[in-house]
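Why this split exists: single-chain examples teach little about how molecules sit against one another. For that reason, every record in the complexes split bundles all components of an assembly together and asks for one structure covering all of them. Below is a record exactly as it appears in the raw files.
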Amino acid sequence: MLSILPQLLVSGVLIGGVYALLSIGLTLIFGVLRIVNFAQGEFIMLAMFGAFWLNLALGVDPYLSAIVVVPAIFVLGMVVERFVIQRILHAPHSMQIFATFGVSVLMQNLALTLWGPDYRSVITPYTSQAYTVAGLSISATSLFAFVAAIVMAAGLIAFLHFSRGGRALRAMVQNRYAAALMGVDTKRLNRLAFGCGVACAAVSGCILTPMYYTFPTVGVDLIITSFVVVVLGGMGSIAGAIVGGLIIGIAQTVTGFYFSVEFKDVVALLLFIVILLVRPQGLFGRLGAEEMGTK
Amino acid sequence: MINDYYLNIVVMTFLWAALSGAWNLLAGYGGLVSLGQSAFFGIGAYTTAVLYAQFGLSPWLGMGAGVVFTTVTAVIISWPCFRLRGAFFSLATMVFPIVLEIVANNWASVTRGSSGIALPFKPGLNNFIFDSRWAYMAAAFLLMMGVYGITRWIHRGRLGLYLIAVRDDQDAAESMGVEPVKVKLIVTMISAALTSLGGFLYAQYILFLDPPSVFSINISVQIALFSLIGGLGTPVGPIIGSLIMTPLDGVLSAFLGGGPRLVIYGAVLLGVVLVAPQGVAGAWQAWRRK
């Protein structure tokens, strides 16, 4: 039983990379706007459908389709920010929750109405391809997702710390009004941040398409895990999303093997509750982050 | 002659108004925006169903057991969550119905798993199962008025003031001597007990339960939506919301499939939040004050 542990850990790390990839956009949006985007999973779903249709109609590779899908979702995100998010930025928490929840219900069921409830999948030459390294099997699609997560996180962290725009963004997070007085265009930055956040969701959607089914409620399945990852890592922390993703991925793979597959989700959810109780700010988060910069 | 179709809509209108009213106590007054009310609803429904269908115990006993069981569960799961504020509280509450649904699906020896549990149809007051929908209508009406009465009592009393103070600024309320945890715990217990009664009534009326039909996130959303439309934090809001939405929902589901119906739900939810966050009752009060 123990001899399989290295393989379980490798699979767990790879799955964890996928979870991290799904969570980076969510944590970015929370970090900047202090809003938990309940519709994040639906942006992933839309990107998956985008990749699916491009593949079906034109035979485009799902990874390659990101070139078209990601900018399209970015623009959609900016539109949603303009008409929904901007108007509830200073509203009570309950209204913020229900606004993004409303967007989620709307998008999910528009997809259901337009494309039906069927599970679809894209088959590529590399879908079931695996590499064997030192006796350990590594799936090609998971490896790619893992690498993409690391690259995306590194890129965002570099942007936030070393570029002018990133510095303005961090200034705004610390103090919205002071930043505005210093000439930071907070409205524009908010819109860009939301657009980037859902664009991250779109990237993860395109990468997920060859390894998962595409259906209208796929976002709900994905977003619950994402919430767990982001809360574990610390809402607003990009490095936290990576670490949180890895921990959940490993925990799920190991319990799924040694106990039962049905209870692997329960384990993740119980872990979630325990973290909220023991360290509500998450591993890399700061206490009181949900209200920071809004007052 | 009023046929069963319309009576069913009336029963459901009262039931949803009661459920939404119980949520309104939590979210509207306490600022505890729970997205997990279906956990309390499902425990109430499953307790009576399991005790009656599997063990042959009277539903009256099931009702009592359900209320006690739900209230105790609510205290255990909510107490730790009170440390979380705003959206984090909502995130945590969302998790419990998902866990319960997995448990109900896998604990087949008691809940009969995903195939669901049917309550034997033996009409009579001692079984709380009736031939006529009028009886269910009366029961649902009583529950709705009970919730309304409790809400009004809280609204006018000391507890309501404490709740609103904690909702609007917890730190300030605490510095004035209000104990936030105690106040939140009391309102959670009341809300859970009332929601459990709603679950009991649902089980005795529909006579069939399966895990997704009672633990689904859609139930929690619907509960919240009705209060939002009617007016959050007003005693009459949930009733107005249910009076508008339940019949509309009946019409929509008769003419449209699940997808388009929920598109309209999403649009209504978004529209209310953006255009009239104070709901119908709030808009009416604002208009009268002019």
